[in-house]
Every structure is written in C-alpha cells, then in structure tokens.
C-alpha cells in the first residue's frame, strides 16, 4: 500500500479558493478510491496515427475522471533543457535576498515576481507555506512571447531581475515556458479527444493562452507542523509539474477517503493535474484533485509548475454533451473567471480569518 493515512478525522483544504474539508473514511466506511497516480506513456502523442492518439486519449480520460492526476511519461520534451532549468532554479534561489526582493510579487497586480518564505498561507493551521517562489506569466510586453501588444497597451505584468548575477534566469525560464506551451497545445488535442470532441476543438480559444510558470524552492522541513504548500486545488485548466528528485516523495494528492497518496518523482515524466476550470467545463465529470507538498526528505526540493488556461478573452461554457437536461449553463469569459478567483485569494490574503493568503493558482 503506497498511501499514508492522515491522523486527523478531517482533512482541510482550499477548493475553488474556498476552505473545504473532507472526513477521513477508514475500514468499512472507506469507498473505492485511487491509491496511486497512474503513469501514461505519452510517446503516442507524437504518432501520425489517429488511432494511437485516441488510445492515449482514452487512458488520459479515465485518469481525469477517476484521479484528476496522472504522470505523462516519455513526454518528448528535451530532458537536458529540463535539467538545465532546474539548475537555473537552484542558482536563482541561492542569490541574496535583496537581489530576489527587487521583483517582490507584492509590487504587481497579478502577484508576478518573487514570493518570499512563509508569504503564501493556504493552510491556516500552519505558520505559512515553507517555500519561496517566482511567478511569471502571459505578458505581451515580453518579446519572448511574440504576442501583439494589447491596444490600448496595459502595463507590463511580469517583473524580471536586473541584477547582473540574476540575468541568466529570464532566458532559462523562457526556454521552459516555450517548450511547455508547445507540449500543452498537443495535450489539449488529447484532452479534446478524451471528451469525444474533434482534436482541434480548443484550438480557436488557445491562440494566446493564459499561462504561468511558478519556480519553487522547498527547503527541507524539520517539523511535521510545517507544509511546503498547503492543501489546495489549482484554478487554471490544467497544470504540468516538473519536479526535482528527492528520496522521500513530497507532492501528495488527496483521495476520496481522505488519504494522502504520494506522487514521487518519476524520471522522464511530468505530473499533470486537472484544475478547477476544466472541472467546470466538463460539468464536473473530470476531477480537480486536492494536493499539497511536504518536504520531509532532508534535501532541497525544486519544482516548476506550468499552469495553462485558454485565451483571456475566450468565452467558454460546459461542453454541450456533458450538460444535464433542464440545467441552465452560463457562458463566461476566461479572464473574468480568473480575476474572480484572484479576488477570492486577495480577500483571503487581507483577511486570514477567511482561510488563507497567497495565490493557489
Ligand atoms: O511543487 C509541486 O509539486 C506542486 C506545487 C503546486 O501544487 C502549486 O504550485 O500549485
Ligand atoms: Fe497546485
């Protein structure tokens, strides 16, 4: 058995930006629930044969319905580039605090830039998330993204370090961002097939998607009272996580019985998870699963989640054939949904009694 049972009767988390809880079910009370995250061979994503891609999609669809998480093994993204990016994270987070604080995320509307230790706090029972991070995202002002500037031009969203010792970081993050954006578009074709839609169903709403890379450093935690990132669901469409290897798994996902299932680093793989927005668009048939990070390995851990959502101005609703008869479904604008979620986070940031602070993207 690969899962560890929680000691408490209730597990607390953030779902949809709102505090939620789940009772731990044991023995006869327990329901059938996943005990590990499935590994799916992604070589078929590059196949010319539609039947190969459909076969992959049917495995992906099952994982999205039953677990909300899966490993994309043999993803085909340049391994050396991924290693180099993780090395760039190590080098960046080892810089003096003053250099990192130049881009403190509190200086921007969208929390882009550096997040210091304990500033995020998704779990109120802790002293804060034992992590530091750096967030960047879609921004037409960064020439690397090759996007037309919005008219009238809004101000830049990203902040990048300007100290000479930190200049290596921006190109390293952009190499990763570009590769992950390309992979995500292919993955969207598989998701479309998995939802019995034409492969290109989401292409027109993802011409200039909302994307974020969060580079994160989790130091080893000495106390079980600490958490690297408190239990939460993500609020984009889906997330890809590339993580450094540690002797003890640090990422954990919550199954239906309130048990934490470990998600160790598997070579040549990304961890993929469905987030709140795709759960909404699939009428709840795909799961946005609660997860957290605890780094009890005694080693430094680095990860770089890549968050993907459609175009900010796209209008979306629940996929037609997944609608229930008699229900009314609103169409909503992607950027507005995102902003609403950010506002929930901003409110909780200002009022810790509401359950947390920081962005659980
Ligand atoms: O570091 C990880 O493995 C996951 C981080 C995470 O869940 C997040 O940033 O939303
Ligand atoms: Fe997450």
UniProtKB/TrEMBL annotation:
Gene Ontology process terms (BP): small molecule biosynthetic process
GO MF, one example: oxidoreductase activity
Domain Fe2OG dioxygenase: 206-310
InterPro entries (alphabetical): DIOX_N, IPNS-like_FE2OG_OXY, IPNS-like_sf, Iron_ascorbate_oxido_reductase, Oxoglu/Fe-dep_dioxygenase_dom
Name of one Pfam family that matches: DIOX_N
PROSITE patterns membership: FE2OG_OXY
Keyword Oxidoreductase: yes
Keyword vocabulary terms for this entry: Iron, Metal-binding, Oxidoreductase
Superkingdom classification of source: Eukaryota
Name of this protein: Clavaminate synthase-like protein
Organism encoding this protein: Dothidotthia symphoricarpi CBS 119687
């Amino acid at each position: 058995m690969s899962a560890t049972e929680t000691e408490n009767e209730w597990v607390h988390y953030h779902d949809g930006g709102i505090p939620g809880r789940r009772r731990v079910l044991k023995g006869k009370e327990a329901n059938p629930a996943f005990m590990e995250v499935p590994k799916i061979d992604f070589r078929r994503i590059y196949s010319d044969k539609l039947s190969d891609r459909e076969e992959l999609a049917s495995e992906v669809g099952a994982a999205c319905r039953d677990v909300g998480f899966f490993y994309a093994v043999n993803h085909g993204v340049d391994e050396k580039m991924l290693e180099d990016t993780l090395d760039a994270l190590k080098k960046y987070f080892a810089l003096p605090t003053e250099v990192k604080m130049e881009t403190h995320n509190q200086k921007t509307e969208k929390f882009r830039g550096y997040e210091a230790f304990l500033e995020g706090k998704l779990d109120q029972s802790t002293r804060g998330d034992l992590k530091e991070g750096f967030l960047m995202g879609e921004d037409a002002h960064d020439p690397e993204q090759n996007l037309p500037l919005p008219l009238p031009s809004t101000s830049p969203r990203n902040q990048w370090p300007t100290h000479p010792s930190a200049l290596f970081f921006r190109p390293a993050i952009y190499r990763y961002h570009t590769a992950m954006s390309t992979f995500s578009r292919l993955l969207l074709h598989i998701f479309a097939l998995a939802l019995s839609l034409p492969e290109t169903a989401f292409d027109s709403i993802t011409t200039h998607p909302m994307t974020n890379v969060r580079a994160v450093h989790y130091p080893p935690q000495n106390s079980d009272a600490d958490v690297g990132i408190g239990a939460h669901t993500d609020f984009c469409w889906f997330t890809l996580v590339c993580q450094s290897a540690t002797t003890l798994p640090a990422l954990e996902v919550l199954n239906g019985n309130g048990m934490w299932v470990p998600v160790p680093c598997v070579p040549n793989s990304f961890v993929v998870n469905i987030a709140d927005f795709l759960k909404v668009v699939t009428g709840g048939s795909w799961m946005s699963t609660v997860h957290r990070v605890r780094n009890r390995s005694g080693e430094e851990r680095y990860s770089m989640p890549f968050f993907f959502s459609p175009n900010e101005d796209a209008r979306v609703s629940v996929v037609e054939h997944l609608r229930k008869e008699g229900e009314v479904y609103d169409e909503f604008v992607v950027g507005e949904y995102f902003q609403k979620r950010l506002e929930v986070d901003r409110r909780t940031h200002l009022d810790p009694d509401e359950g947390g602070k920081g962005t659980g993207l």
